[in-house]
Structure formats: structure tokens, C-alpha cells
Design a protein that fits this description.
The complex is a heterodimer of chains A (557) and B (342). Chain A has 557 residues and is mainly α. Helix content of chain A is 74%, strand content 1%. Chain A has one domain: MetI-like fold (Orthogonal Bundle). Chain A contains 23 helices and two strands. Chain B is an alpha/beta fold and 342 residues long. Chain B folds into two domains: 174 residues, D-Maltodextrin-Binding Protein, domain 2, CATH 3.40.190.10; 148 residues, Periplasmic binding protein-like II (D-Maltodextrin-Binding Protein, domain 2, 3-Layer(aba) Sandwich), CATH 3.40.190.10. In chain B, 44% of the residues lie in helices and 16% in strands. Classes of the chains: A mainly alpha (557), B alpha/beta (342).
Chain lengths: 557, 342
């Protein structure tokens, strides 16, 4: 009972009520389950074929590290600028098109990073439409006649990632901004603070946990990316990882590099958390009046609308437009009746994963609140950095334990019943869902945690006083308050799974295609035109639930 | 969200999972299961022909990574029979992971020259791909060239290639080490790097495109891309801006890599799998590889497609791929050492 008042309270020395112990066990077993793939990669890292580090340190490692650092810094700054600004505008102001922008700002999210990279390269490289037009206009005839920024570069990569990853920041921050109590802002204003002061002293600190969640996702996705950076010839740590794995056949060495990447993610999370330790903001409850947006007029309204429109134009309309153009042009070559099946496979996998992860994420976050323990906290923290690992490596982390389990189970069945079971889980959809869970837990967990953090513990106490157990108060109090955060998380998980490629590719059953794996057979050969139709379908199918969920989240005010 | 709706949703989703899991069990009697590094659209027509002829179904998982790892942990229970892949490096990886078994087949031995299969019959080459040098028609007038020439000062700022880390380039560099020793190969690679017109980027076709755009005059690229580009409406002008040259015709011959096949250790459908291997090395499949994918047949005597033949005949480097594979690791490290991609 006493554990609920302070989140850091360690109740282990006290007499514990059974529900608390039960919740701890639940957390522990869920966290271990999700941690297994990550741990098996760490296990692999103890058995490298050869120590790769002397070679790497003497040659390319310094560049991998600095490139990775610049890329993450650039994407961090730019996607915060894009995402936070647009979220703040939409949540706090009224301007022409705001209603549409509020959902349309999510659209770029459905475009896989490697697809937007292909599209802009196609448009902006030397032979692309844009430069060709310039040449025709000014009479230039060769690359030596003029200067044009190289799209396949570090800067280009930063821009591409930021354009499709800012929605992480937008979505988490918008939810937080909308859940922020108006009375707090009114109080600040009535105490004489101006708009800017209120923004920096009241609004932003309140959004910070959500910003951290969104940004962490964007950065981890940048860190684990291989397709985009290799297309742009930007050499990050993943380049070294794939090289060690595939060219040197040194899986253990590759796992060590994956470990380094997870270490970087943990370090960033730790820094963010420790600098935020003192700040706690709570909202008081359900009855808070929804924030009444201020009306913008004149040039401010135009500026706000232009900003939002440009993001949508660059992040969605341009890529979707070009994909549509190629899809129509190459329709005969690209259409297959199997598309319906692929789309259904993608839909089923992604919605199942979203459901699983929302449940697991909420349970983990909630049990940390009502039955905190240091050990579990560490486990949960670790389990949520699987996202920093390239999907292909995490997939190997799923293959190994599942294969061992299946073979063990088969052996047991043979010994007891005389007939084996074969491989029960390996090569089934379960393996893919398991990988998704290990990979994207951080999304739902982060959203649930930041949502819970905004609910004051007095609510829990009140519920206890009224005789409600943890389950009842979760259902009656926390879940309704978490609705927005969890819907936001569901959207992110869903779309991430729609786009997920490397793990799906490795783990899938025979003859099983999703839209992403179908796109890959062309995209892996840089056949943008042939892959356009299927890529467009990922975008469209990915959008439907985004729009539906977004509608649900807006209507429930 | 209303609770009843959530409950209904959860129930439906559970049923869907159950369906997905049980529906995926492949249970047909006559079948071959394949893990493939080759894109489905490249191999599907050939596999379908096999099914029409024999009634044996083929089931495929296409992935470019993780095949060795998956086979290794699935162990004796693995459902996979064959691995279809490109590049000698990938085949070597399967041997090292100890997940393949030897095949004794007269048909395979006759169809596939010894230099293109492993000494222990653990893997078999199915098609050949030459590492060509593409030369600008407009800005060069050379008819013969060698890989060694790429490092000569006269080509400074005129050479394009994809990443030195790509498996096709790694195999080429490994063959340079095999022929000249590591020190000479390093000198050569530094020379090529000094001649690069731009940082290595893009795929093989992008290099030919760069020739068309005037960015460079020579480019490394595999042979079949010439066919792919020539038959594509938008890309044919890239191809037409360049001649395809077969390097080292005056001495050891052009470097050749393979796409190949291996039988897994677990292979539950071994007999069917060997049938498919033999079919793939046979006249009909070899023709199809050449007609559809513009690859060179591995089987002696099978004529390449008309388009492929029109590029002229060539002498291939006689060194065995087993030999080249030995130097892959050195080649990878050499690329880092000379900072080829930097």
C-alpha cells in the first residue's frame, strides 16, 4: 500500500502485500521474455571469430563513430525542431487548416526512410528532374558548370531521416501538450509570465518526458538504419556491423558492434533521465478543462500554416506523388493479384503487434508504478533499447533462442511420446511477432511511462482509499487518462511494423510476403520505378489506421 | 475505447494468429523448400517451369541475410532443403557454418566445370557473371583493358565503382590478391582509389549512368546489368553510352563470379532437392537464366541468349573460386586499410 506514494520508494524491506509481489513477478517475467533476443545477441558477442577491434580502430572506426555522432546530432536537432514546433502550433493555436494539419502532419511517418531517400535522389541528383530543369533554364551542360548540393551525403541523410522521423516527436509531444492542464498555463499567465516565459518555464518542461520518448525513438531508428545510409554512402556504425558480419563472417564481432550501439542508446537515455531527475509534473485528473487554443491572425497564421504545409509537402506529398507517378507508369509490370494477400499479411502482423505491445507496455509501466523494484527497473530499461539494434541482428537474437527451444521441445516430445514436434515456433509468424515485440517495446513502454508520469499519485491513493485494487484503478482511472498516449503508441507501433523489413525478411515462413518484403526485392536493386506501386501501398495501408486512430483520439475529448 | 469492442477485437486477432501460424505449415508431399538470397522475380519463372515438369512444388523464403544463422539453429529439424545464393563469399559462409552436405551427382559433375563447384561438392555454381569494365563511347576509344589498367595515372578522376565492400568488388580484389600477392594488390587498390571520380556509391547500374552523365569514363560493373539496362525503356540510353569490355583478355582472362546452390545438411526432401539442382544446371534452366537474367550459362555448350552473345565471347580467369574465397578476408581488410570508400 505504501509503495504508491513515491515512485522511487523501495518497499522490499517492508512487509509486502501479495498484489505487490504478484506485480513484481509479472514485470520480471515480461521483461525477461522481451530481453531474451537482446541477451542472446550479447551472448553471441562473447564468441567472435577473431578480435576485430584492432583492425577497426586502426582503420575505419573513427570515421564510423564521428559520422554516427554527426548524423544523430543532426537528426536530433532537426526532428525536434520540426516535430516540437508543429505539435506546439497545432496544440496551442488556431489557424487556417489546423484541423487538417493535425492529422496530416503524421503522413510522412508512413514513408519508409529508404524510400524517401530513393525519391529525393531520383529528383535531386545530377540526372534528376530538378537539376535537368536548371540546366535547361541556364544553359549549363556539365557538372563542372555549376554547384549543386550533393543529396547523397551526410547532410542529405540528416534531412531525409528528419523528414520521416519528426512525426515521432510530433505525436508524443502533441499528446503531452493536449493533456497539459489549462489551469497550469492560466496560472502562469495570471502570475504575469508572458507567452515565451510560459512556454519555456511551464509548457516545455511538462513536455520534456514526451519529447524524450519521441526523440529517443527517432534517434534509435537513425542508429539502427542500414538501407538509407548505405544508399547515401554515409558510413555509420551499421556499415561496420554488416561488413563484419557478412564480409568477414564474424557474427560475434558484429554482435559486439551491436552491443556498442545499444550502449550508445543506454548512455543517451541515462543522460536524459539524470538531467530530468528533479523535474516532476503531474496533472490532477479527468476533470481538467481541455486546452482552449489561441486564435492566430494575420502573418502569424500564415507562417504557422506554411510551416506545417511545407513539412507535409516535403515529407509526404512529394514522395507519394513521385511514387504514384511511377506506379502508374510501371503499373503493368508491377501489379500482381497477390497484393491483396501481402497487404492483409502486413495489416494482420502490424495490428497484432500493436495490440500485444500496448498491453505489455502498459503492464510494465503500471507495475513499475505500483510495485517498483530496482532490479525490474533495470530489466525494463534494458528491454527497451532493443530498438537501437539493427533489425537483422535482433532477428538473429530471436532465431537462436527459438531454435534452441524448438529443438529441446522436439527432443522432449520424442523421449516422452515417441514422435517429435519438429520446429514449433521457428519460421512461423510467432517468430516475427516476437521480434517486433523486442524491437518496438520501447515505443509503447515509453508512451505509457510518460503518460503515467503525468498522473499524480494522489489519484492512486484516492482509488486505494475507496477500496479499489490495482486492477480496478488501472481500468477505471489510469487507462482512461492514458488513452491518448496509448493510441499514439499504437499508431507508432503499427506503422513501424508495416515498414519493418530486416527482421521480417529473415524470420518469415515459406512463401510469406508482406508489402515491405515485396518492395525489398526491387528496392534492394535500387529499382525505384518497379517498387513504387508496392511502396505506395505500404504508405496507404499504413495510413488507414493512423487516420482512424487519430480520429478516435481527437473525438474523445 | 469501449470494452466490448476491445474484447471482440482481441478475440478476432487471436483467431487470426492461430490461422496464420497453422496455415503456414507447409505439408505437401512433393516439395522442395528453399532459402534464397536471389530475388523471387529472378528465379520464380525457372522454379515454376520445374514444378510444371515434375509436379514438385517449391516453397521459398527470400532474404539476403541470416540464412546461415537460421540453418544453424534450426539444426536437424530445419525444413529447408536448398540455399540459392549469389557470390562465392555467401557459399563459403555456408560451408564454414557447417550447414550444407555434399552431393554426388553425375549430372551435376557433367554440367558444371570443376572450377565452378567446390572440391568437396558442397556447393555448385549455376550461372556466371563477369566483372566487366564499362567504357564511355564518347570519351574513350579503347577496345581492350585490364583490371590493372584501372590504377594507371591516365585514368585519374575518370573511374567509377560501387562500394569496395560490395561482395562483387571483394571477390575481384581477392582475385587480385590471389594473382599478385597482397602488397601488389594494395598498391593497385590505392591507385584505383586515386583515380576515382567520386566517392564509391550506388549500385552497378548507377556507375554506367554516371558514364552517361559525364561524371566518369570507366566503370566496374557486372555483365548482366548491361542486358537489364538495354531492355529497360528508361535505362537503355545509359547502357548505349558505354561499351562493355571484357578485361584481361590478353592474359589470364576476366574475373568471374557465380550464383550457386547448396544442399542443406538437414534437407528433409533430399531426393527432390537434388532433382531441382540437376534441373537448374540443365540445358533448359540454363537457357532461361540467360534469356531472362542475362547471366552466362555455367554449362559448357549452352549458348547464351542472343543479346548476351552479341557482347562477344570472352576468356574467363581459370583460377578456382575456392582459391579466391581464401583471400576474401584479406580483401575486406585491404579496403578498410586503403580507405577505399572514404
Amino acid at each position: 500500500m505504501e509503495a504508491i506514494t513515491a515512485p522511487d520508494f523501495d518497499a522490499s524491506t517492508h512487509h509486502q502485500a501479495d498484489p505487490v509481489r504478484w506485480w513484481r513477478w509479472l514485470t520480471c517475467s515480461l521483461a525477461v521474455l522481451v530481453l531474451i533476443p537482446l541477451l542472446s545477441v550479447l551472448y553471441l558477442s562473447f564468441f567472435p571469430d577473431e578480435n576485430i577491434w584492432p583492425h577497426l580502430i586502426n582503420t575505419v572506426l573513427p570515421r564510423y563513430l564521428t559520422t554516427t555522432a554527426w548524423l544523430m546530432l543532426g537528426v536530433g536537432l532537426l526532428s525536434t525542431f520540426f516535430g516540437l514546433t508543429s505539435a506546439w502550433l497545432v496544440a496551442h493555436y488556431r489557424f487556417p487548416g489546423r484541423r487538417i494539419f493535425s492529422w496530416a502532419l503524421l503522413l510522412p511517418f508512413a514513408v519508409p526512410a529508404y524510400v524517401i531517400a530513393y525519391v529525393y535522389t531520383d529528383l535531386l541528383e545530377y540526372s534528376g528532374t530538378f537539376q535537368a530543369t536548371l540546366r535547361a533554364l541556364f544553359g549549363w551542360s556539365s557538372p563542372r558548370d555549376y554547384w549543386f548540393p550533393e543529396i547523397r551525403s551526410l547532410g542529405g541523410a540528416i534531412l531525409m531521416f528528419s523528414l520521416v522521423l519528426y512525426p515521432y516527436v510530433y505525436l508524443t509531444c502533441r499528446a503531452a501538450l493536449q493533456e497539459q492542464s489549462e489551469s497550469l498555463i492560466l496560472a502562469s499567465r495570471s502570475l504575469g509570465a508572458g507567452t515565451l516565459k510560459t512556454l519555456f518555464k511551464v509548457i516545455l518542461p511538462g513536455v520534456r518526458p514526451a519529447l524524450a520518448v519521441g526523440l529517443a525513438l527517432a534517434l534509435m531508428e537513425t542508429l539502427n538504419d542500414y538501407g538509407t545510409v548505405s544508399y547515401f554512402a554515409v558510413q555509420t556504425l551499421t556499415a561496420g556491423l554488416y561488413d563484419t558480419w557478412l564480409n568477414l563472417s564474424n557474427l560475434g564481432g558484429a554482435a559486439q558492434i551491436a552491443g556498442l550501439m545499444v550502449g550508445i542508446a543506454l548512455l543517451l537515455l541515462y543522460l536524459e533521465r539524470s538531467s530530468r531527475r528533479q523535474v516532476k509534473t503531474y496533472q490532477t485528473g479527468i476533470k481538467v478543462r481541455p486546452l482552449e487554443p489561441t486564435r492566430l491572425s494575420g502573418k502569424y497564421a500564415v507562417a504557422a500554416a506554411t510551416f506545417c504545409f511545407l513539412l507535409i509537402l516535403a515529407g509526404f506529398l512529394v514522395p507519394a506523388g513521385l511514387l504514384t507517378y511511377y506506379a502508374v507508369l510501371y503499373f503493368e509490370q508491377s501489379w500482381t493479384n497477390d497484393f491483396v494477400e501481402y497487404a492483409l499479411n502486413s495489416l494482420k502482423l502490424s495490428s497484432l503487434a500493436a495490440l500485444i505491445l500496448i498491453i505489455v507496455g502498459t503492464l510494465l509501466a503500471y507495475s513499475q508504478r505500483i510495485a517498483p523494484s530496482k532490479f525490474n527497473k533495470t530489466m525494463v530499461r534494458l528491454a527497451s533499447v532493443g530498438y537501437a539494434m539493427p533489425g537483422a541482428v535482433l532477428a538473429v537474437g530471436v532465431i537462436v533462442p527459438l531454435g534452441r527451444f524448438d529443438n529441446w521441445f522436439d527432443g522432449v516430445a520424442k523421449a516422452w511420446f515417441g514422435t517429435g514436434t519438429g520446429l514449433l515456433l521457428s519460421g512461423t509468424v510467432v517468430a516475427i511477432l516476437y521480434a517486433y515485440s523486442a524491437r518496438f517495446l520501447t515505443v509503447s513502454l515509453g508512451s505509457a511511462e510518460s503518460g503515467l508520469a503525468r498522473i499524480t499519485p494522489t489519484m492512486d491513493q484516492a482509488a486505494r482509499t475507496l477500496g479499489h485494487g490495482p486492477w480496478t484503478s488501472l481500468r477505471k482511472i489510469h487507462l482512461p487518462l492514458l488513452r491518448r498516449s496509448l493510441l499514439a503508441a499504437a499508431i507508432i507501433v503499427f506503422v513501424d511494423c508495416m515498414k519493418e523489413l530486416p527482421a521480417t525478411l529473415i524470420l518469415r515462413p515459406f512463401n510469406f510476403e508482406t508489402l515491405a518484403t515485396f518492395v525489398y526485392q526491387y528496392a534492394s536493386d535500387e529499382l525505384l520505378e518497379q517498387s513504387a506501386l508496392a511502396a505506395l501501398m505500404i504508405v496507404i495501408v499504413g495510413l488507414l489506421p493512423v487516420l482512424l486512430l487519430n480520429k478516435a483520439s481527437n473525438n474523445g475529448q | 475505447m469501449k470494452v466490448p469492442f476491445a474484447k471482440r477485437l482481441a478475440c478476432r486477432l487471436l483467431m487470426v494468429t492461430a490461422g496464420l501460424v497453422s496455415g503456414q505449415q507447409v505439408m505437401a508431399a512433393d516439395e522442395v523448400n528453399i532459402y534464397s538470397n536471389r530475388q523471387p522475380f529472378l528465379i520464380r519463372p525457372i522454379l515454376d517451369t520445374f514444378t510444371r515438369q515434375t509436379g514438385i512444388e517449391t516453397n521459398v523464403v527470400f532474404t539476403k541475410t541470416g540464412v546461415a544463422e537460421r540453418l544453424k539453429t534450426e539444426g536437424a529439424n530445419s525444413p529447408a532443403d536448398l540455399v540459392l545464393t549469389v557470390d562465392i563469399g555467401r557459399l563459403q559462409e555456408l560451408v564454414e557454418a557447417d550447414v550444407v552436405q555434399p552431393v554426388e551427382s553425375k549430372v551435376l559433375d557433367t554440367n558444371i566445370p570443376a572450377q565452378y563447384r567446390s572440391k568437396e561438392n558442397l556447393w555448385f555454381g549455376l550461372t556466371l557473371r563477369v566483372r566487366n569494365i564499362y567504357a564511355s563511347k564518347e570519351r574513350t576509344d579503347i577496345k581492350a583493358i585490364s583490371y590493372e589498367d584501372l590504377s594507371k595515372p591516365e585514368w585519374k578522376g575518370r573511374v567509377c565503382t560501387r562500394s569496395g565492400k560490395h561482395q562483387y568488388n571483394i571477390a575481384l580484389i581477392a582475385s587480385m590478391i590471389a594473382h599478385h600477392g597482397e602488397a601488389e594488390a594494395e598498391k593497385w587498390l590505392r591507385g584505383v582509389k586515386a583515380n576515382l571520380a567520386q566517392k564509391p556509391q550506388g549500385n552497378d547500374r548507377a556507375q554506367v549512368k554516371a558514364i552517361k552523365e559525364g561524371i566518369c569514363d570507366l566503370a566496374l560493373g557486372n555483365s548482366y546489368y548491361y542486358g537489364v539496362m538495354l531492355t529497360d525503356e528508361n535505362q537503355s540510353e545509359w547502357a548505349r553510352s558505354a561499351n562493355i569490355l571484357f578485361p584481361n583478355q590478353d592474359n589470364r582472362g576476366a574475373h568471374v563470379n557465380i550464383s550457386g546452390v547448396a544442399l542443406t545438411k538437414a534437407a528433409p526432401n533430399k531426393a527432390n532437392a537434388i532433382k531441382l539442382m540437376e534441373f537448374l544446371s540443365g540445358e533448359l534452366a540454363q537457357r532461361m537464366y540467360s534469356e531472362q537474367n542475362y547471366e552466362y550459362p555455367v554449362k559448357p555448350g549452352v549458348q547464351p541468349s542472343g543479346l548476351v552473345s552479341s557482347w562477344g565471347s570472352f576468356t574467363a580467369d581459370q583460377i578456382s573460386l575456392d582459391e579466391i574465397a581464401k583471400y576474401r578476408e584479406q580483401a575486406v581488410k585491404l579496403v578498410d586499410k586503403v580507405d577505399f570508400d572514404g
